[in-house]
Design a protein that fits this description.
Number of domains: 3
Strand content: 5-15%
Number of strands: 5
Oligomer: single chain
Helix content: 40-55%
CATH class of the largest domain: Alpha Beta
Order of helices and strands: HEHHEHEHEHEHHHHHHHH
């Protein structure tokens, strides 16, 4: 892992390198953008550059020394990683207090103690307020690197105390070309992944490296189109399959949302690229059948359901309501 792995974010790498070269490193940075766009990769590359034992040039990590390798694996002594707990999808105030204790100690191996706080939009308000003390009065030799989907989803007081770098997805064309050039993905697969990832390099690579994940996404999509031709009883029977837990349901809803957004695009004959190329014929047929208004209603319903999923709702009832709102038809 080096700056060269940051596909599409060369400007961000150059900015961070210049901060190091000119001894102007900020005490806190916030990297924003959609999941899979490269926020964590940028943070870890920066941490490598800050810690590297044998930098080939100012601001450049070698990527090979022990410290660089430990940083890549997120196992380096002076690197702290904070992220939400799997069972709650929440960063809690106790985690911030534990981090503050660690940051109060002098670096052990390197010049800085670096803390990477991943998906910080998942932090509770109490946790964000607790971090403010560190942002306002940062200890010497401490650098905070936060990632989030959008600055607007954090407290303004957090954002105002960070250098904000907003990462954007690549064009589908550039990502497809990069997948072929840098990772040896064949042309058809590269285009499919680039569309499915909506220009997010990290997500595209994750799908490429995990064929089972790609197969599962396809299965959920196929099941959605099959459900449109099913009776209410059959739809309710399907609920038993997917409404076992919030963790298992979330990616199903995200997949369906992606497909209904494609139906909306197809319904208005826009030139915007579809995400799910494998289902292009079904998407266009569905768009012609239900029209933009119904496609939008189904899209909004899924967006609302994903938001409700984070609350204490009955997930079986949630899915039943979604399927009741879908039209019943035969999809080609």
């Amino acid at each position: 892992m080096t700056w060269n792995t940051l596909l599409g974010h060369e400007w961000a790498a150059q900015l961070l390198k210049q901060h190091m070269v000119h001894n102007a490193v900020r005490h806190a940075y916030l990297f924003t953008g959609p999941e899979g766009v490269g926020r964590r990769t940028l943070a870890l590359c920066f941490a490598q550059a800050l810690h590297c034992l044998y930098p080939p040039a100012p601001g450049e990590p070698c990527g090979e020394c022990q410290i660089c390798q430990q940083t890549k694996r997120m196992e380096m002594t002076d690197l702290s990683i904070v992220q939400s707990e799997p069972d709650s999808h929440t960063i809690k105030i106790e985690q911030i207090r534990d981090l503050q204790h660690i940051l109060s100690l002098a670096p052990y191996q390197t010049r800085y103690r670096v803390a990477v706080l991943l998906r910080f939009e998942e932090a509770t308000v109490a946790a964000q307020n607790a971090l403010l003390k560190t942002l306002e009065e940062p200890p010497q030799k401490v650098i905070l690197l936060l990632t989030a989907d959008a600055a607007e989803n954090l407290l303004p007081t957090i954002v105002s105390r960070c250098e904000v770098l907003r990462l954007r997805p690549l064009s589908v064309e550039r990502l497809a070309e990069a997948l072929q050039t840098h990772w040896g993905v064949n042309n058809n697969e590269a285009w499919k992944l680039a569309h499915l990832a909506n220009g997010r390099p990290g997500y595209a690579l994750r799908l490429h490296q995990n064929p089972q994940m790609l197969k599962q996404l396809h299965a959920w999509g196929a099941e959605m189109f099959e459900l449109l031709a099913e009776s209410r009883r059959a739809r309710f029977a399907y609920v038993e399959k997917v409404a076992k837990s919030r963790e298992e349901l979330r990616p199903v809803l995200v997949t369906w949302l992606s497909l209904w957004r494609d139906v909306m695009l197809a319904a208005v004959s826009t030139n915007a690229p579809l995400t799910n190329l494998e289902f292009e014929p079904q998407i266009h047929h569905l768009a012609e059948t239900v029209g933009w208004s119904k496609a939008r209603a189904c899209t909004v319903g899924l967006e609302r359901a994903l938001a409700q999923l984070e609350a204490n709702v009955n997930i079986r009832l949630l899915v039943e309501n979604i399927l009741l709102d879908w039209p019943r038809l035969t999809v080609g």
